[in-house]
Amino acid sequence: MKKDKSKMVKGLARVFEWKTYILTALAVISFSNFVAVLFGQTIPGVVADFFRVAGEYVVLGAVFVFAMTWLIKAKPHNRPRHYSVMIFDVFGKQTVIEGIRTEFKTYDVAWSYMKQYKQMYPLCNFALVSDVSRSEKPTIFRYI
I want to staple 130 with a disulfide (CB 3.0 to 4.6 A). Which of 34, 74, 80, 110 is the partner? Predict the structure, then answer.
């Protein structure tokens, strides 16, 4: 029995040997270090980079869509080169007053003359039209 007891003591001494614990501690520390690096640096870094690049593409795409929409909608304006003043009497019928100018090249001059004509002929109404549309009915820009 004494022999068995000494074997058991030697076996227990082996269990409590420092080399075994060092190897176990190293394995645990390296695994925990691996997990800490994986979940603390690698995965957040990859996810952050992905969303950073994805955000750049979203902003770039929005700018591109805005630019294309603007280019499609921005048509060159067909500005009139000729303005006319139409005269209407009290009943709303178009008439002609002799001696007044009705053809103009600029909008501001035509509008100025219209205001002057309204003071001179208060019972008549005046409309500023242009030759932009080639339809039978002219487009009225201002009416007083």
Answer: 80
